[in-house]
């Protein structure tokens, strides 16, 4: 830990990042079809400035600079006995080595949040930080890390954070092995937004939110709002087009329009720079 914080294993950097629990707004999903997990509202999201060392720099310092047959995945695990399930009771996952080595992905081993050392709740003394990804792919209280030719077999790597086909419930997933199919893993945040006639929007992959819209007629027509991206200047100063933070939007709505019989609810949606639109 001291070697990382001293900069011995790589340059210390600070990066603003928004990330979420994959279950953010799950309560709304559960109104349509019951899922597995907590009944989250819209508050499982936050934005902070994280400080640490890029994982690619640390890997280079120990001689790993490219994927190979033996070096395909980077594994991360938290403390042994932390959780009730799995062989070791640890929370673990893995990412492709190519992802870990990509400097533009900004994968960090972080030891500070908003300029202060991590608190225990946020992973003291060291945690992983994967911009653009869900919180479930980041390991707090990082205890071990290694490189191998196979992805993680940790219990929570398989049984947390998957989106399975609509006909597959938990029982069928266990019976037919759906949990183990890599194509159903959730890594990156989906495009999403929330509102108060002002609101936020976020997306994954390092893309930026380019506009937010509202509808007063159940999605028949849409109106563009005023958008702010405070991260733009930071990204420009860093010399990158990657955006890891939420954007803010707001608009004015005349009260008379809300009284119109066609206005049953106010809807919002966001678009990102890859022209993905929130459903």
UniProtKB/TrEMBL annotation:
Cofactor(s) of this protein: Mo-molybdopterin
- InterPro entries per the UniProt record, alphabetical: Ig_E-set (IPR014756), MoCF_OxRdtse_dimer (IPR005066), Mopterin_OxRdtase_euk (IPR008335), OxRdtase_Mopterin-bd_dom (IPR000572), OxRdtase_Mopterin-bd_sf (IPR036374)
Cite the Moybdenum cofactor oxidoreductase dimerisation domain residue spans from the record: 183-279
Membrane spanning stretches: none
Keywords on this record? Metal-binding, Molybdenum, Oxidoreductase
From which residue to which does any coiled coil extend? Answer: none
Please give the SUPFAM superfamilies that the UniProt record associates with this protein: E set domains, Oxidoreductase molybdopterin-binding domain
MF GO annotations: heme binding; molybdenum ion binding; molybdopterin cofactor binding; sulfite oxidase activity
Query: Among the record's GO biological process terms, what is one?
Result: sulfur compound metabolic process
Domain Oxidoreductase molybdopterin-binding, by residue range, is: 13-156
* The name this protein goes by in its record: NITA protein
Q: Which organism does this record belong to?
A: Symbiodinium necroappetens
């Amino acid at each position: 830990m001291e070697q990382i914080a001293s900069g011995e294993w790589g340059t210390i950097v600070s990066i603003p990042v928004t990330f979420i629990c994959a279950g953010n707004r799950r309560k709304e999903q559960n109104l349509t079809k019951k899922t597995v997990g907590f009944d989250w509202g819209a508050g499982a999201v936050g934005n902070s400035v994280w400080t640490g060392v890029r994982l690619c720099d640390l890997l280079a310092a120990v001689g790993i600079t490219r994927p190979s047959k033996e070096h395909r995945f980077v594994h991360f695990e938290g403390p042994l006995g932390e959780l009730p399930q799995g062989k070791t009771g640890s929370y673990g996952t893995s990412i492709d080595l190519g992802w870990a080595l990509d400097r533009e992905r900004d994968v960090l081993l972080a030891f500070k949040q908003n300029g202060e050392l991590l608190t225990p709740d946020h992973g003291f003394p060291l945690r992983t930080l994967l911009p653009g990804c869900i919180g479930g792919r980041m390991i707090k209280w990082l205890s071990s890390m290694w490189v191998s030719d196979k992805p993680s077999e940790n219990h929570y790597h398989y049984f947390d954070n998957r989106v399975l086909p609509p006909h597959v419930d938990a029982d069928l997933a266990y019976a037919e092995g759906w949990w183990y199919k890599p194509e159903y893993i959730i890594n990156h945040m989906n495009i999403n937004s929330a509102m108060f006639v002002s609101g936020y929007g976020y997306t994954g992959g390092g893309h930026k939110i380019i506009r937010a819209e509202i509808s007063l007629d159940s999605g028949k027509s849409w109106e563009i709002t005023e958008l702010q991206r405070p991260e733009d200047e930071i990204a420009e100063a860093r010399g990158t087009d990657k955006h890891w933070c939420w954007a803010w939007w707001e608009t004015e709505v005349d009260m008379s329009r809300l009284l119109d019989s066609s206005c049953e609810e106010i809807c919002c949606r966001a678009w990102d720079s890859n022209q993905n639109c929130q459903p």
